[in-house]
Write a structure and sequence with these properties.
Blueprint (H helix, E strand, L loop, with lengths): L26 E7 L6 H11 L3 E7 L6 H11 L3 E5 L6 H14 L4 E4 L11 H7 L5 E5 L7 E2 L3 H18 L11 E4 H6 L11 H12 L4 E5 L2 E2 L10 H19 L4
Parallel strand pairs: 1-2, 1-4, 2-3, 5-8, 6-9
Antiparallel strand pairs: 4-7, 5-7
Helix pairs in contact: 5-8, 7-8
């Protein structure tokens, strides 16, 4: 598999469900949740309406606000909705890994990461599906076409922008938005990666997954998106997450140089 320089296929948001016939494969959208009861039903509905080939897996970390119970009630009425309940809050990275394993066991072809808070617009799923004709990993990028972020305070925007510059400098990964949490993996990528070895728990997880896929020779591309700050709930960003990002990118590079990635 080649390591082509990422590019951005022209967006084609289409006119409605199944508007992008480029890839006729089953997809699973993984939505990690912790206290997302105000937004989860709307996000699930919007994803399902986008494309009949898509299903949803909600990975809920025992949300005390009842998110898990609400998803169970939706799943009881809709066969394309599934819930994976975990005993406690164990981190974003482990939630996605659990979702990846679930998807691989059930033979899904395209596996998506997506936030459950409304910041990722399901209309871009069509662009990402189309882009898998050229790429093995597709990243929904906030920074390929300028800066496309709405409603973030300047401090948060600068943190995100320069974190991506930092990650690119340290790892050599040629992505404008390596920290994006809106992405699609084709099945062969997740089958090839050692998911047990993925150590990041916070948002560095996104960098690590991209880096591991790139080092395996998979093609990574970006499609432009507009990111809108969450419409409900509270951000999970913390100082600990930032500190993890600072040192873990160096650890990834060192492991790669030593052949231990």
């Amino acid at each position: 598999m080649s390591t082509d320089t990422p590019s951005s296929p022209a967006p084609d948001h289409g006119e409605g469900p199944e508007s992008d016939p480029a890839v006729d494969r089953r997809g699973l959208v993984i939505l990690p949740t912790y206290n997302e009861i105000d937004s989860i039903a709307g996000i699930i509905s919007a994803v399902l309406a986008r494309d009949s080939r898509l299903s949803v897996l909600v990975v809920d970390d025992a949300s005390p606000d009842g998110t898990g119970a609400l998803v169970d009630s939706i799943a009881a009425e809709e066969r394309r909705v599934h819930a994976l309940h975990r005993e406690g809050k164990s981190g974003l990275g482990s939630a996605y890994v659990a979702g990846f394993r679930w998807a691989l066991e059930r033979d899904f072809d395209l596996i998506f990461e997506m936030d459950a808070d409304g910041s990722h617009d399901p209309r871009y799923l069509s662009d990402m599906i189309a882009a898998t004709a050229a790429f093995d990993v597709v990243v929904g990028s906030r920074y390929t076409a300028g800066v496309n972020v709405i409603n973030w305070p300047m401090s948060r925007l600068l943190l995100s922008y320069y974190a991506n510059r930092y990650a690119r400098f340290v790892t050599g990964l040629r992505l404008a938005d390596s920290t994006s949490g809106f992405k699609c993996f084709t099945r062969p990528v997740l089958e090839a990666l050692d998911l047990d070895a993925v150590g990041s728990t916070g948002y560095t997880f996104q960098i690590e997954m991209n880096f591991r896929a790139w080092k395996k020779g998979f093609r990574i591309g970006e499609v432009p998106i507009v990111f809108t700050d969450r419409v409900a709930g509270r951000s999970k960003m913390s100082g600990a997450i930032v500190r993890e990002a600072v040192w873990r990118v160096w650890a990834l590079r060192l492991r790669s140089l030593l052949g231990r990635l």
